[in-house]
Every structure is written in structure tokens, then in C-alpha cells.
Amino acid sequence: MQYQSHFRVHLEVVAGNAEPAVYNVAVTATRMCALEGGWVISRSLAGQVGFSAWSIDEVMAWYGWIVASATPACDHLRQDHRQMEEYLDRLLTALSHISPELVSDVRGAVTSLQCVETLHFEKEESLFYPKLRPAFPDLLAQMDLQHQDIREVEQHVAEMLADTPEIPEQRWLDELRRSGIELYDRIQHHIVDEEDQLFRVAGNHLTPEDQETLASAFKKIQSGKSQG
Q1: What is the pLDDT of residues 40-90, one digit of tens each?
Q2: Residues whose CB falls within 8 Å of the CB of residue 76, separated by 6 or more in sequence, listed in order
Q3: Is the terminal CB of the chain with fewer CB neighbours within 10 Å at N or C?
Q4: Is 182 helix (H, G, I), strand (E, B) or coil?
Q5: Is-contact 43 51, C-beta < 8 A?
């Protein structure tokens, strides 16, 4: 594909509540463009008016660019968060209408959540946090405390579910709802803090090589391979 060299665009990365990163990119047949997140806003600087939302696939198809993430380690952890939020939504739905018949739904959501969370915490505590701790000790101490709080509440919920009465009474169901919602709130709060605070400073502090190395190590943990 051929384009006039004077035609340029703004790409503004949409990444949650974070300030968008802006890239000025000359349009060529093949162009490496660093993006954070899966959606961009495209605006021509050659006189066209208006904004439009483009997915990465649409950008590649239209402009012929090769699109790659500038923060693959943070993006990997964000993907974990999105999966955790799916299970959190299932948990909240079951808890909102708790009954003896829905206890199994709560158990399934918590079990699935624990599977994702265990690997996610391992990636962060063994690799991501140690890399950032020297530069941001107070913030990392806050993240450590949130992990500890989540584990404590989650253990209580898991113990309740492991010892479910044959016919749960309303008081037991109320306690399960209370503890389950507390777990939901703590995990959701932690996700927001990580994405709004930790990933923001990590994106500025870590080099592209750091990001790539961490992302590769995360994938090894995800696949169950030992790290070299």
C-alpha cells in the first residue's frame, strides 16, 4: 500500500483512566507503532475533521501497520485482571441472589478466581514487584498489603465453602454473602490501584527490554514452565 508522505495521524491510546499517550506517526506501508491497550483513536492532521474509534486489527488492515505493545508486561497483567473480573462478575451475581441452590455457583466462581489469582500473584510477587520495589517502595508496600488482605478474606470464604452445611441456614448464607462481597470489593479495589498507579509508573520506569523480559517470564509461569 502506498500513501502520501505528508499525511500524518495522531494515535491516542485509550487505557482506562490513564492519560492517553500520544504518538505522531508518518503513514507508510509497514510501520511499527507502539500502543498500550487494544483501542486507539485516529484523527488526521491533514485537515480531516472528527474522531473515530479503531481496533488494532482495523488499524493494521487499513494502514498496513504492524502494531505492537510498548508495555507487554503490564498488558499481560491487565489481561489477567480482565479474566479475574469475569469471575468476579459471576461471583457477585450469585451472591446478590444467594440461596442454597446458588452456593455451587459461588463455589465455582471462587475456585476459578483462585486459579487465575494464584498465577497472577506469583508473576507479580516473584518478578514484577521486585523489579519496581527499589524505585517505589511505599507503593509496593501498599500492593503487598492488598495481596495479604485478599488472601485472608479469600481463605475465610474458601473455608466456609469447604464446610457448607447440608441445608444452609439463612444466617450462614448471609455470612457467605458478606464475606464474598468483601472479597469482591478488595480484589476490584486492588485491580484499580494497580492499573491507575502501579502500571502507570511502571510504564515510565521500565525500559522496553525490561517489559519484554518480564512478559516472557510471565508467559513461562502461565504455561507452567520453569524459569531459566
Answers
A1: 333 333 333 333 444 545 544 544 444 456 788 999 999 999 999 999 999
A2: 123, 214, 215, 218, 219
A3: C
A4: helix
A5: yes
Look at residue 165 and tell me whether its pLDDT is greater than 80. Answer: yes
- Residue 23, SS3 per DSSP: strand
The answer to whether the CB of 33 falls within 8 A of the CB of 67 is yes
Please name which of 38, 19, 40, 122 lies closest in space to residue 82, comparing C-alpha atoms.
38
- CB-CB contact of 33 with 69 (8 Å): no
- Reported pTM: 0.70
Please report the sign of the dihedral spanned by the C-alpha atoms of residue 58, residue 64, residue 70, residue 76. positive
Are 42 and 10 spatial neighbours (Cβ–Cβ below 8 Å)? yes
72 grid coordinates:
507487554
Give the three cell numbers for residue 154.
Answer: 479469600
